[in-house]
Design a protein that fits this description.
single chain; about 100 residues; alpha/beta; 3-stranded parallel β-sheet; 3 helices; about 35% helix
Length: about 100
Amino acid sequence: LILRGCKLSDYDFDKNFFHLGELKFLDLSQNELQAAGAKRLDDVLIHNSSLTSLDLSHNRRMGKEGASAISSMIQMNSGLRELNLTHSIVDFKKIYEAMLYN
């Protein structure tokens, strides 16, 4: 599913948004995701073991709180193999540690 550049914000992500079955690829790049949106995304995707690729690039306002949410999702989602955070401002140390755990 490609939702690149749709100007999605934190409030556009809820559990109803992702009732898409066996989603394998999700591109949310170039949106306006912040920490709250990353947390909501975490709540939705944490148990989606079919997701193998997630693109969150060019979401510049996720910060440390967003990185914590993403880290949690990575640790719980064993199917995720590719994560793009290019040009996103997050705490990469937390993300790296979560990837080692996964």
